[in-house]
Amino acid sequence: MIISKTPYRISFFGGGTDYPSWYSKFGGEVISTTIDKYLYLTCRNLPNFFKHKYRIVYSQIELANKINEIQHKVVREMLKKLNFKRGLEIQYIGDLPAYSGMGSSSSFIVGCMNVLQNFKNRKITNKQLALDSFNFEQKILKEIVGSQDQIAASYGGFNSIKFYKNKSFKVKKLEISKKNESTLNNRLLLLYTGNHRRAHDIASSYVGHLTDTKSNIMFKLQDFTYMAKKYLAKGMLDDFGDLLNESWHLKKKLSNKISSNYIDEIYAKAIKLGSLGGKILGAGGGGFFLFYIHENKINNFRRNFSEFEIVQFKFEKEGSKIIFNNEGKNK
Questions:
Q1: Residue 101: DSSP 8-state
Q2: Tens digit of pLDDT for each residue in 24-73?
Q3: Most exposed: 9, 15, 140, 306, by fewest CB within 10 Å?
Q4: Using one digit for the tens of pLDDT, what is the confidence trace for 267-276?
Q5: β 61-64/158-163 pair status
Q6: 8 falls in which pLDDT band (50, 70, 90)?
Q7: Distance between first and last Cα of the chain
Q8: What's the CATH code, domain 178-316?
């Protein structure tokens, strides 16, 4: 058996500039961090005495004798891509719900790629894992998704990720003192709206169909990454929180699917309770809100949002890794 452990991520600024259709023309940059909430995938050889060759366990349990019979699209297509012939059992466990803006789809792909490559005794670098994962999601699955989530899940850490017109990328740890990083972490929390949505559905409403006005919004959102890096380096954390607020209001102008009356009401209430800023994570439409709020106001915030699930978290630095492997070398 082999087990992979892959973190979820939070994207602060620059979302949308990580789509190939954008950065291949203008470049792009995002600021994100991985957190101590994880997606686990176990993979083991399935002996021949079972009546089925493949057992896939997630919100459903699938039993299949041929790869093409597997309904889970990611597992099916990845087993085909990696040319698996032997029987396998794959099980998924996640700390957070899918389709909630936490990059879960990409984390699943990264974790699955990591565990299956290791099952074949292939050592894979963080960079290659990221490249293989976003190429798989964008080119094989044909999903309209960006490239930041796969990189974040592969590398881990609180980083700036730059995208270049030649489609290369660079990951750089952000300049922030340990004290300020800890303070920032303590002022962030997640609020689950209860709404599920697919990033593909939201992003397709504006990616690749940008008017001049919307392109100008994208350039402004890209500029926010430079401002955010300056605030972090100088310890101007409240300015970072204010910038989240400005970015959220600007991003909503890209598509009427990014927010809703329900989401806007939650946001307005959070601001009244002392949050300096926040955003719906991922492409928008639902899932988790991220809020920046001072520590002395968090308890009151929780009381006033008691009907919602609120999650506090810690930044993590390791990215996807194999935490158990007893398969040996006889692949």
A1: S
A2: 999 999 999 999 999 999 999 998 888 999 999 999 999 999 999 999 99
A3: 306
A4: 999 999 999 9
A5: unpaired
A6: very high
A7: 12
A8: 3.30.70.890
Question: Is 147 exposed, middle or buried (CB count within 10 Å of its CB: 0-12, 13-18, 19+)?
Answer: buried
pLDDT score, position 31 = 98
Record the pTM: 0.93
Write the CATH number of the domain with boundaries 2-174. 3.30.230.10
Residue 320 near residue 110, CB atoms below 8 Å: yes
Query: Position of tokens 């709020």?
Result: 293
Q: Both tokens of residue 265?
A: 């009401």
CA distance 266 to 117: 42
Contact criterion met (CB below 8 Å) for 82 and 117? yes
Is there a contact between 146 and 204 (Cβ–Cβ < 8 Å)? no
The pLDDT value recorded for residue 327 is 83
pLDDT digits (tens, 9 = 90+) for 210-238: 667 889 999 999 999 999 999 999 999 99
* Tokens coding 17: 């500039």
Collect all residues with Cβ–Cβ distance below 8 Å to 202 and sequence separation of at least 6: 255, 257, 258, 282, 283, 284, 285
Rounded CA separation 3/267 (Å): 38
Residue 286 in tokens: 């639902």
Q: Where are the domains of the chain?
A: 2-174, 178-316
Mean pLDDT of 275-289: 88
What does the alpha-carbon distance between residue 174 and residue 159 come to, in Å, rounded to a whole number? 5
The angle formed by the CA atoms of residues 89, 108 and 178, to the nearest 5 degrees, is 130
Alpha-carbon dihedral sign for residues 147, 153, 155, 158: positive
